[in-house]
Specification:
Elements (H helix, E strand, L loop, with lengths): L3 E4 L1 H6 L4 E8 L7 H22 L7 H11 L9 H10 L9 H13 L2 E6 L6 E6 L5 E3 L5 E3 L4 E5 L2 E5 L15 E8 L5 H16 L3 E8 L1
Parallel strand pairs: 1-4
Antiparallel strand pairs: 2-9, 2-10, 3-9, 4-7, 5-6, 7-8
């Protein structure tokens, strides 16, 4: 069943351009796609290093707008980095990327290429009604491979049982594993441009090509 996502009115009041690109699809999650990693290392890493050189990380399009939104929401963007910025910084420093699985690796490809944060969630672990909102005072969750993360002031995606992810770091609750069979991928945009449409289009193509996604539905929430 297709998940229903809405953007909280209080968040829109603070940052009107906020939108979310959504993809829901069936998939057999694999450990690694060699072809995708060749493309990443040959093309995307070089392009990313050039962007860092041309702009400086903080000024890269779509990362720049996300940092500005974080400040408005009350979170220091240099301490709680948007995930796309954290990925780009790793590449700029020559550290490369972690290999996780085919879905998460495609997430990272889309994120680096577009400057948007991208999160993927196991649909069997989340409710049908979702909201994108600003984290509440005292709100936390256990991050993937991390301790409890303070998510107050962060842009978070939540269902009736609480937050499951953010544009900085996702929780363990709905993380993608090789047992996941249906996935909801979200592209978080804080920019007033048409890059989200392009990122969603590329994301669908990459998920089909490199992760074997089928029955892909895609839409934008604003």
């Amino acid at each position: 069943m297709k998940k229903n996502l809405m953007i909280d009115e209080a968040m829109k009041a603070l940052w009107p351009p906020v939108r979310v690109g959504c993809m829901q699809y069936k998939v057999k999650v694999e450990k690694k796609n060699e072809e995708m990693w060749k493309y990443l290392k040959k093309d995307i890493f070089k392009r990313t290093k050039d962007a860092v050189f041309d702009y400086g990380v903080n000024e890269i399009p779509n990362i720049k707008e996300a940092r500005a939104a974080y400040k408005v929401f009350g979170k220091d963007p240099s301490r709680y980095r948007v995930s796309s910025e954290a990925l780009v910084r790793r590449i700029g420093q020559g550290k490369g990327l972690y290999e996780v699985n085919t879905v998460v690796d495609v997430n990272n490809l889309v994120s680096i290429e577009s400057g948007f944060s991208v999160g993927s969630y196991d649909t069997s672990k989340i409710e049908d009604e979702l909201v994108f909102r600003v984290g509440k005072a005292g709100e936390t969750y256990k991050g993937i491979g991390k301790e409890e993360i303070k998510i107050d002031g962060l842009p978070v995606i939540a269902d009736k049982n609480g937050a499951i992810g953010s544009s900085t770091s996702d929780s363990e609750r709905a993380m993608i594993t090789e047992k996941s069979s249906e996935v909801l991928t979200l592209i978080y945009s804080f920019s007033d441009n048409y890059d989200l449409e392009k990122a969603l289009e590329n994301g669908k193509r990459y998920m089909e090509k490199y992760a074997g996604a089928v029955e892909v539905e895609s839409w934008i929430v604003q």
